[in-house]
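Sequence, please.
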């Protein structure tokens, strides 16, 4: 195994300011937040270097971390921290994933070849989606909290990502209409991978997900071989739980 994962996936900020992003929609690329220090090339490069130092090496993924304007995915009050390697609150008790975790999961998914169709569970603010979309054929992403999904939709559209399809739904069910998927990525942790998701994974497909309770989760990569599911355990992480039903 090439990496060892630190045990602080996206913990820390998960129950931060639940109303942080309430009602804002001033995240436009053309807004006044362009050109200020925190979004500078140097700040972003520092983040990329930090991820490299931690063992991440896929140049395509690192290029995405460099290019995707993470400050547009968080509330303006938190924008100065957008290029720190940390999770930040996005409202509704949820967090934007830590850049290390986003890069790490994306690398794991891409290893062995870029998937054509990816199902993502837990769109959140859309940051992981934006990192992933240019690297794969198409992304189908499900979020249970409608308000978060609509905000993500607006941002992803602004960024011109046309190969992303979003759905307000419960990720436990997957998205049968577009199955099978040759890649799946989960941003919230179930106690066990839902059967419906395994059923929607194409032969040879890979699913990368955190699994376990809030006190003990592991990142796993499951590869489907016929009706066999080969599981690799990639290290300890800390994600918000996968919740049932709509938010
Ligand atoms: N990658 C996202 C992380 C968001 S946190 C980002 O970068 O912003 C995880 C998200 O999973 C939350 O938005 C939460 O609402 C969502 N979630 C939890 N359970 C879910 C479920 N059953 N179906 C769909 N989304 C779910």
């Amino acid at each position: 195994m090439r990496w060892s994962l630190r045990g602080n996936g996206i913990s820390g900020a998960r129950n931060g300011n639940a109303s942080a992003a309430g009602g804002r929609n001033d995240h436009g690329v053309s807004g006044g937040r362009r050109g200020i220090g925190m979004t500078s090339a140097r700040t972003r490069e520092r983040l990329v270097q930090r991820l490299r130092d931690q063992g991440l090496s896929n140049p395509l993924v690192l290029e995405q971390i460099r290019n995707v304007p993470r400050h547009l995915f968080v509330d303006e009050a938190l924008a100065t921290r957008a290029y720190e390697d940390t999770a930040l609150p996005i409202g509704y008790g949820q967090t934007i994933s830590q850049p290390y975790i986003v890069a790490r999961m994306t690398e794991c998914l891409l290893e062995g070849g870029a998937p054509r169709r990816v199902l993502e569970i837990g769109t959140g603010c859309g940051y992981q989606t934006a990192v992933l979309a240019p690297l794969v054929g198409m992304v189908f992403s499900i979020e249970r909290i409608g308000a978060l999904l609509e905000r993500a939709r607006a941002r992803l559209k602004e960024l011109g990502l046309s190969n992303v399809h979003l759905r307000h739904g419960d990720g436990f069910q997957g998205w049968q209409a577009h199955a099978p998927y040759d890649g799946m990525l989960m941003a919230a942790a179930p106690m066990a991978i839902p059967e419906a998701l395994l059923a929607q994974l194409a032969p040879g497909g890979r699913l990368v997900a955190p699994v376990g309770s809030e006190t003990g989760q592991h990142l796993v990569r499951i590869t489907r071989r016929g009706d066999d599911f080969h599981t690799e355990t990639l290290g300890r992480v800390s994600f918000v739980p996968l919740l049932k039903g709509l938010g």
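Confidence is low (pLDDT under 50) at residues 1-36.
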